[in-house]
Each structure stands twice: as C-alpha cells, then as structure tokens.
Amino acid sequence: MSEFYSKRRSVLARKMSSEKIPDNHLEQILAAGIRVPDHGALNPWKIKVISGEKLKLIDKDIILSEFKKENSNANDIQLETESKRLQRASVVLAVLSTPVDHPKIPVWEMSLSSGAVCMNLLSCAQSLGYAAQWLTEWYAYNEKMLEYLGGRKKIDKISGFIYIGHKLEEPNERRRPDPAKVISYL
Ligand SMILES: Cc1cc2nc3c(=O)[nH]c(=O)nc-3n(C[C@H](O)[C@H](O)[C@H](O)COP(=O)(O)O)c2cc1C
User: Fold this and answer.
1) Cβ proximity of 11 and 173 under 8 Å
2) Candidates 5, 12, 95, 134: which one to mutate for ligand 1, based on the most atoms within 8 Å of Cβ?
3) How many whole angstroms separate alpha carbon 131 and alpha carbon 125?
4) CATH number for the domain formed by residue range(s) 8-170
5) Which of 41, 56, 134, 156 to pair with 85, CA 20 to 30 A apart?
6) Exposed (0-12), middle (13-18) or buried (19+): which is 96, by Cβ within 10 Å?
C-alpha cells in the first residue's frame, strides 16, 4: 500500500493559506474524486465548487447573515469568524447528498456513496500535497445554505464542505483509534 494512506492527515482549515490552486490540479481532484462506489450508478450526489469571489459572497450573504439571525448577541470576535469561514480555503467543494427514488436501493446506500465522494475528494487533494479538511460546522445544517447550493429542502443534505488550501506547515499526528478496540477477526 502506498505510504500516502498510512500517513494521510487533514490540515485544519484555520491553518491553511488560501492562494489560488491551479485549475488543472482542481480538475484532477474533481475527476478522480467522483470515482467512488455507487450502487446502481445512480450518482446520488452533487459537488458545488466554490472559489474566488463566491467564497466571499457566501460568507457574507449566507453564513454571516444566517449566524446573525440566530445569534443577535454575538460579539465582534464571533462575527469576524463567521464572516470568513469559507475564505480560509483556496477552494471549497460542497458535497450534497441528493437521493433518488429507487425500488431496491435504499437511501442509506446513496448517503454512504456521498460520504465516499467527500473522503475521495479529500484524499485526492491531500495526495497532491494540498492542505484539506472535511467540515460540516453549523452551516451544513442551515436551510438557506442548502437552498443556495441547489439542494431540495427535506430531501437533500450537505454531506460536507471539503476545504482545500495550501499547507503552512506539516500537521502533527492526531490521536488515532486503537485497532484492537475497533477491529476484530471473526
Ligand atoms: C462528516 C464530518 C464532519 C466533520 N465536521 C467537522 C467540524 O464541523 N468541525 C471540526 O473541527 N471537525 C470536523 N470533522 C473532522 C475533521 O474533518 C478532522 O479534521 C478530521 O477528523 C481529521 O482526520 P484525518 O486527519 O484522519 O483526516 C468532520 C469530519 C466528518 C467526517
């Protein structure tokens, strides 16, 4: 197995830098990222690519604005954080789980396939040496955000935002599960 998989590590969005990523790298990440297992080849997911001015626009018009609605007593530090969420990255890939009606394949499997897209995009970006992190934070559960991204209310869900940027330093290892506690041989 390539060492990439045994060493792979996310970089926190707040620790990445946001200079532009070359278009050909982004294209490679997207093309490889959607090569995931998908029962029935239903493609029950969508990816919305958010970069450049759109990062700013969504930060202002959706994230900050929705945060203010729910948090009228927010302090300046909180408002500053919410005003720059997406702008931590060079590009944010919003992955939507968009299940379809099917007589045999359960929605659960379609959701799993959407999670696979998230993980694959994350790994593809990291394999090219980029800093990347899979986040949901509060705004993945916000209806206005879902609607803005083209999701159907009460049907589609945001599986995650894949933040991609540049590494400022190599990340430290994080606590990993004890294999003996999560793996057993039957
Ligand atoms: C569906 C999902 C949502 C997540 N949302 C958050 C989040 O909102 N905030 C956070 O700090 N980490 C969140 N994480 C965890 C981060 O992705 C974290 O960087 C990750 O656990 C690092 O693991 P890795 O180094 O093995 O890639 C989420 C993970 C998943 C799978």
Assistant:
1) no
2) 134
3) 7
4) 3.40.109.10
5) 156
6) buried
